[in-house]
Specification:
This protein is an alpha+beta fold. Helix content is 43%, strand content 16%. The protein is built from six helices and five strands.
Length: 141
């Protein structure tokens, strides 16, 4: 459990609803909004409130089990990702996502932090563009 989860009161009780949200996250490779996850759960017959979806996503994010990024429009989207530090290249049309390493960004962030005597620095870098499939559709339209 990470420090943020401990600060929030430690581990939370596992309920059927929380397990359903966790299962929904495991079953998808795409970034999705809390509302989309909630709708998919209800479609599958799960009785899970939207507030429970949000709380579970926050807990999973705090634990480092789920990544949350903000879209170009500022909306939070969630996806289960690899446990190592990485960034995302996200298609702004279909949401297709590629995990990318950013060694140059990492070196720059460390240098800037050291230059200003900052410690325990974190950062988030997300790149948004148009994937090849969406480029093809847009070119045809």
């Amino acid at each position: 459990m990470n420090d943020q989860a401990v600060a929030r009161g430690g581990a939370t009780r596992s309920t059927r609803q929380k397990r359903a949200v966790e299962a929904a996250m495991k079953s998808s490779d795409d970034f999705r909004t809390a509302q989309e996850i909630h709708e998919a759960l209800r479609h599958d017959g799960e009785s899970v409130g939207l507030a429970t979806v949000y709380r579970t996503l926050q807990t999973l994010t705090d634990l480092g089990e789920v990544d949350m990024v903000k879209t170009d429009g500022g909306e939070a989207v969630y996806r289960r990702c690899s446990p190592t530090h990485h960034h995302h290249l996200v298609c702004r049309h279909c949401g297709r996502t590629v995990e990318i390493a950013g060694p140059t960004v990492e070196r720059w962030a460390s240098a800037k932090a050291a230059e200003h005597d900052f410690a325990d620095v974190s950062h988030t870098v997300e790149l948004f563009g148009t994937c090849p499939a969406c480029q093809k559709v847009l070119d045809q339209g």
